[in-house]
Write a structure and sequence with these properties.
The protein has about 260 residues and is mostly helical. The protein has 13 helices and no strands.
């Protein structure tokens, strides 16, 4: 795995160009162009706030980190959208770049990194805006300094998962459909739509099967309460990183000689 990252670092100039082209290609031919990359998630956030906090004025119970439903949803939904987009696009990144890899001696890791970094370039600024918008809740608490680390570690895990799934998709095309379905239902197996305290205690362990649970809880701690991420979130992050590395390393070794042929 480190060999792949060193190869990507050696070609970082090319990678930056590839990321820019990836962003431009997502909405090429539209009048708004690159602006649509940011407008779509912003409109989604605005819709949550308008519907749940303004129109219906829905409220959560006292056990929730905040009582405003829309405000609660946005904190978890924006990172989840970033996760879904990066993992979804990353899963098919090697398949989509098959012709390029077959004709050029490029490291496959570039294709996965290109997709993940393009999504990071979209959502990182939005998460910064979210932190500024939530100042009345977190009051600029010292715990806010952990936010950049949360964002970076989230996309680091996304890269590992996307690389694993991209290799699996190259070997078995059904992986793309399975991942698409898993992402569509994964939001219900996480503390995004509801506080974790509302989930039955005996079944709460199921939430940790979703890799984003640890990060969502951490974002809620920091942005809604101005508190440091809980130790449960930190342990969850370490476990998921360890599991992803444990799977990716042997997968890279086994697929090294055949990966391009699968594409």
């Amino acid at each position: 795995m480190w060999q792949n990252l060193r190869a990507a670092w050696a070609m970082r100039a090319m990678l930056s160009v590839m990321v820019w082209r990836e962003l431009a290609a997502r909405h090429s031919g539209t009048a708004g162009g690159l602006a649509w990359v940011y407008v779509q998630p912003l409109l989604t956030v605005a819709a949550y706030y308008l519907v749940f906090d303004v129109v219906f004025a829905m409220r959560l119970g006292d056990a929730a980190p905040t009582k405003a439903v829309g405000t609660f949803l946005i904190v978890g939904m924006l990172p989840w959208q970033a996760f879904c987009e990066a993992v979804g696009r990353g899963t098919s990144s090697l398949i989509d770049s098959g012709h390029l890899l077959q004709k050029n001696a490029l490291p496959p890791v570039l294709m996965v990194l290109r997709t993940v970094l393009a999504s990071a370039a979209v959502y990182m600024p939005l998460l910064v805006l979210l932190a500024l918008a939530y100042v009345p809740l977190h009051r600029g608490a010292l715990a806010l300094v952990s936010l950049p680390l949360l964002v970076v570690t989230q996309f680091a895990l996304v890269f590992l998962l996307a690389y694993i799934l991209a290799i699996m998709a190259a070997a078995l095309r059904d992986t793309v459909q399975i991942v698409t379905f898993a992402l569509s239902v994964g939001v219900f197996l996480s503390p995004i739509l509801f506080p974790v305290t509302l989930f039955p205690a005996d079944w709460r362990w199921l939430l940790w099967l979703n890799p984003m649970t640890a990060w969502v809880l951490a974002y809620q701690n920091v942005l809604l309460q101005g508190q440091w991420p809980s130790w449960q979130s930190c342990v969850g992050m370490v476990v998921w990183f360890g599991a992803a590395c444990a799977v990716l390393s042997p997968l890279l070794r086994r697929s090294r000689d055949e990966l391009v042929d699968w594409l």
